[in-house]
Amino acid sequence: MNTNSNKQNNQRRWIVSSNSYTNNVLQFDNPWLVLWWSMAFPGFGHLLTNHYLWGFILIFFEFIVNSLASLNTAIFYSMLGDIEHAKKILNIEWTFLYVSVFTIADSYRRCVDNNKVYQLAYSELNKVKPFQFSTMELNITERTRKVI
User: Fold this and answer.
1) What is the mean pLDDT of residues 60-71?
2) Burial class for 69, CB neighbours closer than 10 Å (0-12, 13-18, 19+)
3) How confident is the model at residue 6 (pLDDT cuts 50, 70, 90)?
4) CA distances to 67, 77, 80 from 85, in Å
5) Which of 51, 98, 102, 118 sits at 20 to 30 Å (Cα–Cα) from 111?
6) Residue 126 lies in a domain
7) For residue 130, what are the contacts with CB-CB under 8 A and spacing of at least 6?
8) Residue 100's closest CA among 29, 46, 30, 31?
9) How many domains in the chain?
């Protein structure tokens, strides 16, 4: 029996998962880089942390909000100097949903959690897998404390 293959099969935290649909790699990322990408374009921070489902949902949501708020048209007219026309076109109600604090904070938190798992990947051997790679995203089981 090969001891190297037994160690590989019993690893608790996997760095690479490969199947017929996708290849996932757990890597150490700078949380501030993920935060800035999430601020620049909602959803990109989640894509950087291998949370594809949330990333694509947030990108789709950003396109919807951007269209309903007429944000790009308002920016266009404001760059031309026609501020009053830009104010008339801009739909303020939808503009409030454009940059979500949840998106920025969630991508930062997920990046920090992924970095913790990455640091533990080489140090523990166990049969229990606390996270699962899938074609949609990375699912992590977190340790929590009971609140009474």
Assistant:
1) 88
2) buried
3) very low
4) 17, 7, 10
5) 98
6) yes
7) 12, 13, 117, 140, 141
8) 46
9) 1
Parent domain of 136: 27-140
2 domain-assigned: no
Which residues are CB-neighbours of 55 under 8 A, at least 6 positions away?
Answer: 43, 44, 45, 46, 47, 137
Residue located via tokens 């760059």:
79
**Beta strands at 16-18 and 23-25: parallel, antiparallel or unpaired:** antiparallel
How confident is residue 128, by pLDDT bands cut at 50, 70 and 90?
very low
**Residue 21 within a domain:** no
5-17 burial code (b ≥16 CB/10 A, e <16) = eeeeeeebbbeeb
Answer yes or no: pTM beyond 0.90.
no
Residue 80 covered by a domain: yes
